[in-house]
Design goal:
Layout (H helix, E strand, L loop, with lengths): L7 E4 L6 H11 L3 E4 L13 H8 L3 E4 L25 E4 L1 H10 L4 E2 L6 E9 L14 E8 L2 E2 L7 E6 L4 E7 L4 E4 L13 H10 L11 H13 L4 E4 L4 H14 L3 E6 L8 H11 L4 E4 L3 H8 L5 H23 L3 E3 L4 H7 L23 E3 L7 H10 L4 H4 L13 E2 L5 H20 L8 E15 L2 E14 L7 E2 L4 H11 L5 E7 L12
Parallel strand pairs: 1-2, 1-3, 3-4, 4-11, 12-13, 12-15, 13-14, 15-16, 17-18, 19-21
Antiparallel strand pairs: 5-8, 6-7, 6-9, 9-10, 10-11, 18-19, 19-20
Helix pairs in contact: 5-6, 6-11, 8-9, 13-14
Keywords: ATP-binding, Glutamine amidotransferase, GMP biosynthesis, Ligase, Nucleotide-binding, Purine biosynthesis
Function: Catalyzes the synthesis of GMP from XMP.
Protein name: GMP synthase (glutamine-hydrolyzing)
Length: 525
């Protein structure tokens, strides 16, 4: 979306975290561009990496991680000519393995002891002398996610960090050629370096100057959307969540009558959500139409299966039908989506590079006969919240917790969705939110999820034996939702939640889930 020339080139090699590298650089004040020879080309990802480098002359290159092995026949192909360009290179995870492999094909090992998924403690050698690790101590808590490892530094490289008592090589560098590599992921928030590693690379090693100002973002979104829409008419679905509401607020003054905003009451909304959305959009001066005639169809179609992907597909199908009907009524030529980088990455969309599909998203790669515009596709949730604040939107919007597009349909797990079960979850979600707000922790939690587990278990109520459902409460904290960690509630809060929720005659148990992502995802489905 940016129109400025990029100083930093990120080569996407199939990592779920590639967009987070770009996000971290934006946070530090640097504009970067992601390109790839893997996946379909776009304006920002032409078919030839070398051609792009020749035309744009970046100051450095970052190689992302990826799920492949460098020795696989279908591994991402990086032109080895980038090693002769005289540009500093930072390899991350797969990028480190590739740098080692092209210099010494025997340097890669694939053994159980070398696999690492999750937190790891890094020991840094020469933290006072290595430009990459300057201003860090001798130990660093980092996030690791790799199957292969580098056995030893190839000729010309030296080891700069290890883990597991020196058994796993975590970083290496060739100062003469300005090649640096780390096995862990410095871009994610679980690596506790406060972005020092990336900043050291782009600032101290590459000599990049800060060229990104978040105050320019809103005008860039408006300008690029206006250009993409031309003389057409666009529809935008507004859920009342941060993403779609912020986007509609940004675009309404620019597009005027060319933008038609509507809300679909799917039947899976939070308690009193429709009225709340009306209130928010009125304050944001968005002219909103509420469409509620499809609720029964959503329940009917989604209730045919308990498989998570099939449920998402069913929601997506009905969602698409509604969009088509609305578009026809307005004579629309385009649809504008509040789709974020996270959605594209988890969907394995070509728009996000070459990452693997984690789950289907209802608002990604739709084929409705309309031209699709996704102005927020490069951004993450916390960045959109910043846009809302810059746009002076009411805090009632910017402080809201995220809510999935399919809504409560994803929170009835293992049993067919019915109107009755949706109502149980809706009321439980409302009660939990009230308790969290009462104890002053709601705003500290990135997202709270209350789900119904569709497996009956035995309980005792009124001195009688009963079989009923279980509810699970999941609270997490995160910056970008690409990785999350559990937000642990106090025993007092847990006790109040349990005593409140089991008052429902069909609920006999309450569980709490604080599993990190990965291995879990934020939602259950």
């Amino acid at each position: 979306m940016q129109n400025k020339p990029a100083q930093i080139l990120i080569i996407d090699l199939g990592s779920q975290y590639t967009q987070i590298i770009r996000r971290s650089l934006r946070y530090l004040g640097f504009h970067s561009v992601i390109i790839s020879d893997v996946g379909r080309p776009t304006i920002e990802r032409p078919t030839s990496i070398l051609k792009w480098v020749e035309e744009n002359k970046p100051k450095c290159i970052i190689l992302s991680g990826g799920s492949a092995s460098v020795y696989d026949a279908d591994a991402p192909k990086i032109p080895e000519e980038i090693l002769t360009l005289g540009l500093p290179i930072l390899g991350i995870c797969y990028g480190m393995q590739w740098l080692a492999y092209v210099h010494d094909k025997n340097s890669i090992q694939k053994i159980l002891e070398s696999k690492s998924y999750g937190p790891v403690e890094i020991k840094i050698y020469g933290s006072q002398t290595s430009l990459l690790f300057r201003n860090l101590g001798e130990k660093l808590k980092a996030w690791s996610s790799h199957g292969d490892s580098v056995k030893y530094p190839p000729s010309g490289f030296s080891a700069t960090a290890t883990s597991q008592g020196g058994a796993v090589l975590e970083a290496m560098e060739n100062v003469t050629k300005n090649f640096y590599a780390v096995q862990f992921h410095p871009e994610v928030e679980q690596t506790e370096d406060k972005n020092i590693i990336l900043n050291n690379f782009v600032s101290n090693i590459c000599g990049c100057k800060q060229d990104y100002d978040k105050k320019d973002v809103i005008e860039e979104i408006r300008e690029n959307t206006r250009k993409a829409l031309g003389d057409g008419t666009a529809i935008i679905g507004v859920s009342g969540g941060v993403d779609s509401t912020t986007l509609a607020s940004i675009l309404t003054p620019t597009l005027g009558d060319q933008l038609k905003a509507f809300m679909i009451d799917t039947g899976g909304m939070r308690k009193d959500e429709v009225e709340r959305v009306k209130e928010i959009t009125q304050k944001a001066e968005i002219n909103l139409e509420v469409i509620d005639k499809y609720k029964e169809k959503f329940i009917q179609e989604i209730g045919k299966t308990i498989d998570a992907e099939e449920k998402r597909a069913a929601f997506r199908k009905v969602y698409g039908e509604v969009f088509k009907d609305v578009a026809k009524g307005y004579g629309a030529t385009h649809m504008i989506q509040g789709t974020l980088a996270t959605d594209l990455i988890e969907s394995g969309s070509g728009s996000a590079g070459a990452s693997a599909m984690i789950k289907t998203h209802h608002n990604v790669d739709l084929d409705l006969g309309l031209k699709e515009i996704m102005p927020l596709q490069d951004y993450f949730k916390f960045e959109v919240r910043e846009m809302a604040r810059l746009f002076n939107l009411n805090e009632i919007l910017t402080a809201r917790q995220p809510f999935p597009g399919p809504g409560l349909y994803l929170r009835v797990v293992g049993v067919p969705v019915t109107a009755e079960l949706l109502e149980i979850v809706r009321e439980a979600d409302h009660r939990v939110a009230e308790i969290l707000k009462k104890h002053g922790v709601y705003d500290k939690i990135a997202q709270s999820i209350v789900a119904l587990l569709g497996v009956n278990s035995v309980g005792v109520k009124g001195d009688g034996r009963v079989y009923g459902y279980s509810l699970v409460v999941r609270t997490v904290e995160t910056v970008d939702f690409m990785t999350v960690k559990g937000f642990y509630l106090s025993p007092a809060i847990c006790e109040e939640i349990i005593s409140t929720l089991v008052k429902h005659p069909k609920i006999v148990r309450v569980f709490f889930d604080w599993t990190s992502k990965p291995p879990a995802t934020t939602e259950f489905e």
